[in-house]
Amino acid sequence: MLIGNSLPSFAPAPSAAPARPLSSDVSPDMLRADLSPVAAAQEQQADSAASGREEADRPATEGRAADSEPSPQEQRLEQLEIAELVQRDREVRAHEQAHAAVGGQYAGAPTYSFKRGPDGQRYAVSGEVSIDTAPVPNDPEATLRKMEIVLRAALAPVEPSAQDLRVAALAQAQAAQARVELAELRREEAAAAEQARDERAQARRDEQQQTGQQQAAQSAPNLDLYRRLGELPAPEPRVDLVA
């Protein structure tokens, strides 16, 4: 997923040539209306000749105007546009570098779109940073740590864009799901640990019981000898005669 800058699209200041002021002089046609017909005809011929010379000289004049320096007003407009481009370039780069710095291993390198200014220099006017928002498989705890970094990276710039906020919302949702899975995993681990403790306690009780039985058997008197003696035949009575 991509996170990018929140700056509005750049619109350079319009450059327009200064308007030519209207002349306050009286029109030549109006002057010719006051002349006599002969004088008017002569004046018209002179105007036609002058007009022909003006048309002949126009390409050279226009060529010189194209090669001439811009007017002071045009220079001011260009300077304003360059200043805006410089400011935009600085803001775009700071925005994207904030994403990349906080995103760390989960963020890619910033990429930019450029605009060439009146001075011939290229200025960044927009940018983006790719960021990994996928959960870590079978490890909600690692997913939670990752989404916390992604969330901080998305909100790192001073003015997060709409796309930044969408990435932040996705990271929060992934983190919430990871917390649920982590809680369930911990409950299962606690139940397994409790069962293991019960089994160990039962094993100790069984061992103690067996040990007690063995000790009781060893301390009981051995009656086998008495039983064997009782099974022997009784001796026959004898009388010794002494002469």
From TrEMBL:
The root-end lineage is:
Bacteria, Pseudomonadati, Pseudomonadota, Gammaproteobacteria, Pseudomonadales
Q: Where is the composition biased (Basic and acidic residues)?
A: 52-67, 189-208
Q: Where is the composition biased (Low complexity)?
A: 1-24, 39-51, 209-220
Region of interest (Disordered), residue spans = 1-80, 189-243
Q: What is the recorded name of this protein?
A: SprA-related family protein
